[in-house]
Amino acid sequence: MAILEIRNVSRRYADLSAVDEVSFSVEAGEFFTLLGPSGCGKTTLLRMIAGFEAPDAGQILLDGVDLADTPPEKRPVHTVFQSYALFPHMTVWDNIAFPLKMAKKPQEEIRRRAQEALEQVHLADKSSHFPHELSGGQKQRVALARGLVNQPRLLLLDEPLGALDAKLREEMRGELIDLQREVGVTFVFVTHSQQEALALSHRIAVMNRGRVEQLDEPSRLYGYPANRFVADFIGDINLMEAEVTEASHSHLKLRVPGLGEVMAPPLPDAKAGEKGALALRPEQARISAHAQTAELKNHFHGTVRGFLYLGDVTVYTVELDNGVSMDALLANSAPGRAKFFDIGDDVFIAWRHDAGLFLRE
């Protein structure tokens, strides 16, 4: 059941359409993410849900009720910011209890709910500490506890992990997943980090220039992007101009400039003569010192021009004989091996006939 409905919402600033007729719904208990580059409209949309800004057109409904006439402080919604926004002169306990005191809750209820929130974020032993005595991760957990203590219908998270270092961000991702599952509150999460969105979300709305390009589960977004923008924004990908030369229910034949004929998975309603792009993830391309023609339909010879060592994997950039450049990923799984190929090595790149995707846009 949808708890939040966004219906044809738009927001303009002079000549700029920050949000342009956006519509989607969020299910109760869902971890829903708005993902996109800076300036795509995701934070503006979050601010309109919170009530800090008003839409120029459209409706925002919470539990079926239009929020247009409801001020921010009256909405059953709380926002957690990247900056934490903690009161420096208050202890952890007082920071968390503050929303309950402002709501004039009974003292016993304040004590009970603040203690529950502290325990949910594993900070019961820090209740008398001040923000300056806490680590970045602990401050973020205080901000989350304060957001949850009033038992909001929606918790809005605006780049909440952005101020943390890489290791701490990774730890906090796991804590966010556990916390959301434990409390059952619906999360609407804003981030520009694809990795973060893929790891945390039940569903993701990818935004670009004020519009939603695609809304789907993480695995669908990654494996079946709707267009070039989504394919290029979610993870790493090889994108090559292509034209359909043959279309059937079992496969596509594509003409790729510089490569010639390439086999690809079928696409409904595809027709010969259609132009678009072949999208192939680096992990779908196999790189080896020997040809793999017997097994794989698509196979090409090339030369290693560069590589990016990432610890568990290495991404090799290979220039094929016809000048086309492609990335291929190889796991560093052999004991004691940091890399398999050096710059200048002759290699073969190949991929299965059912790997990759033809994109019309």
Question: How would you explain this protein's 3D organization?
Answer:
The chain has helices spanning 42-50, 92-102, 107-120, 136-148, 166-183, 194-200, 218-223, 228-233, and strands at 2-13, 16-27, 31-35, 57-62, 65-66, 77-81, 154-158, 186-191, 203-208, 211-216, 238-247, 252-256, 260-264, 275-280, 286-288, 298-309, 313-320, 325-331, 346-351, 357-359. It is an alpha+beta fold. The protein folds into 2 domains: 2-231, 3-Layer(aba) Sandwich (Rossmann fold), CATH 3.40.50; 236-359, Beta Barrel (OB fold (Dihydrolipoamide Acetyltransferase, E2P)). The strands form 4 sheets. Strands 6-7-8-3-9-10 form a 6-stranded mixed beta sheet, sandwiched between helices. Strand 7 (154-158), helix 5 and strand 8 (186-191) form a beta-alpha-beta unit. Helix 2 (92-102) crosses helix 3 and helix 2 (92-102) runs parallel beside helix 4 (136-148). The longest helix is centred in the middle third of the chain and has 18 residues, at 166-183.
